[in-house]
Design goal:
This protein is α/β, with parallel strands linked by helices. The chain has a domain of 124 residues: Rossmann fold (3-Layer(aba) Sandwich), CATH 3.40.50. The chain has a 4-stranded parallel β-sheet, with helices on both faces. A 4-stranded parallel β-sheet has the order 6-5-7-8. α11 links the parallel β7 and β8. α2 packs across α6 and α6 runs antiparallel to α7. It starts with 6 loop residues before the first helix and ends with a helix.
Length: 325
Amino acid sequence: MSLRLPRRLRVGTVTAGLAALALALTACGSGDAGTGGAPAADVGTVRVVASTNVYGSIVRAVGGNRVTVTSIIDDPSADPHSHEATPAEAASVTQAQLVVLNGGGYDDFMSKIVNSAGGHRPVIDAVEVSGLEPALEPGHDHADGHDHGEFNEHVWYSLPTMQTVASRIAGELARLDPASAAEFTANAERFNTQVGELLERATAIGTSHPGARVAVTEPVPGWLLHDAGLTDATPEEFAHAVETDTDPPAAVLQQTLALFTGDPVRALLLNAQTQTPTTDQVKQAAVRAGVPVVEVTETLPEGTTDYLSWMGGQIDALSRAVDRS
């Protein structure tokens, strides 16, 4: 597990590099799609660029061998919040016929590349199509009196949203390749059926343990907890501090550590792609208390190429953790 560099130190590099990317677009726009780590496009396939391998895997599930997919973020140690796009990545977007991104400020580098690239290629923004409201984590414990109106942009953990995204991908691919429309529709329906089965497994956790309290190091899995009917008992100020690479106030840290004493939470969901002294301290408190630690990630782990198996594994791990506590 690698240590993530502070976002507040890296975000500025995206803006600084944008002008250079804009200048490079014309020079790189006619280059081979296989350069810069992007796969060479097969003849007759639709060229799709996704901001992360999560969305890239969904495009593959829907498009099959009728698409050539480039995922800009496919390194588990990379942080989409502060990714500095390269000219080769910008060129891949310029050459793309379809772009799929998360939106909501999560992968802002992608929106900037799309805007700089110009053109009229369709863009699927998962946050925009989600229909989710900015009432972050409805299962959160509101007894703390905090305002929960901030939107949780990690919508790939919202299973219904991923069904919508898959359907939108099928629709756009069908417009780009009408001869394969029936195949895209069938693939999306199959994917959505399997996601529906994942949703049933998630909701079963809450059915067996209604309102069960859990803790998180970051709000990354918030929508999954919502769908599962679990209660996020973490002080919002703590999760926000970790997500923004700041230190939580001492009193907030103590409130978080107290979740593992007395009547402890049933599980700790730990973002395995972020490691800080603060998250280590919380993890150690959970381990000492015998509270199961469930690792979640923001992108597909190394060696994993399938959204369904990845998300299913995390749901099963959460179910085991809640059941055994």
